[in-house]
Amino acid sequence: MDVDLSAFHFLRPWWLLGLLAAALAWGVGRGDRDAAGRGSRIAPALLPYLLVRTPGSRGPRPIDALAAILAVGSLAAAGPAWQRDQPDFLDNVAPLIVAVALGPSMDGADVPPSRLEAAKHLVRDLAARRAGAKTGLIAYAGSSHLVLPPTDDTHLLDLFAQALASDLIGPQGRDAAGAIALAAQVLAAERAGGTLLLLTDGADASQFDAVRQGAQKAEDLQVLVMAVGQTGLDQTALRGLASAAGAPLGSLTRGPDDLDWISLHAQQHFQAVQDARSGAIHWRDAGYWLCWPLALLALLAVRRGWNVGWTAAVVLAVSLAAPADTRANPLADAFLTADQQGRVAFDQGHYDAAAQRFQDPYWKGRAAYQAGDYPTALAAFSKVDTAEGQFYVGNTQTRLRQYDAALAAYDRALALAPGWDAALFNRGIALRLLASMTQEAQGDQAERPDQTIADKSAKQGQKAAAPVAQAASEEQWLSNLTLSPARFLRGRFSVEDAATNATGARP
What we know:
The chain is 53% helix and 8% strand.
């Protein structure tokens, strides 16, 4: 799971008021530090042996330890969070398409060895950085062409990227609008929240209206513009392109900041789209990690002057103040909320215990579902009025073989998140299971074998040659691709441009 420190926040910020209590306790104790015994009738010779702190002593005072425990405990109870908890069925990978502008200007050597080679190197680095994620490639000049659809094969992507050349496309120009339209078409088959990166050294002002319309039409598509070059760039045109596409404008520096800039924008956009579709955002509570420093601070209780009985009374009071159904371990209850304890058990695979500890209905349902306690999971998920909650209601109802209820739950999830692939897929499974159960209820359990209709033409060998010919054709295509991918792309782009000129539409 990705870590986004810019999203750092506290789940229960009101607990931070404990920091004020810690500061107040420490301030009061500081004023009384060496005042003990002053004005008393204790013999001066005995006073050093009765004081917890003497002017020459070192180490923390009891009030210091108390203030530290209050401060760290307040931070833990506040629930620091910076990581999202994604459902198991949600692939947290942002699809990306890189559109590389081609033309004579991309052979400029102001970015050594050339602008185009620098762009190709960036594509290679992006593929390596996004290993496991889908990345596609578009080449455009006077026309736009799909080089490779989104794929997680980094070697294949690098093969096609290295085949790009400035003279690969016949028509000259900067068809950014066509690249945006083509990317929107390709990403329509992928998960929502895709990003298009335009690597270019210029822009055509006459296309800005078309760029603006194309970007607005593709609602879930984010466009990024990265200028390739250091000298001689038309900055006005590049800013106009970025403005028309509603895109951030960056500059290729050939440093790691380029990859960070692209990856951060792509992931943030993808996450925003997914959040809008799935509903509530769930964050991972990291407060339980502060239990370790709290345990170390508790060791100070054995030092001279620390009132152990008072500490035990405080812990007991906190334990008794908690609801009866959340008290399992007095020490854990003193420093962890029920949801925090549930999360610890969940991460350790103790799903039964986690389901008992969780108070949050979503996570209680998740734990019960993992434990196989489907009635409890159903009761918990029914309280979560989000697409994710209704999705899990459908999954749970399917486990309980209540297929009609499962279909209704999937429909509610799709109403909240239209086009959700996971919900559509599971709904299809539930529909088939319902049909099968209905068939069994009607007593039609006999499975008739599939009928095979003999094709006389096939017996005569009229169709036998077609698969062989196709296989030979595919083998020849792969051979040509391996030997010369650039020649393959040039020929394909030429055919597509010819078909477009003849019909007015891309084949």
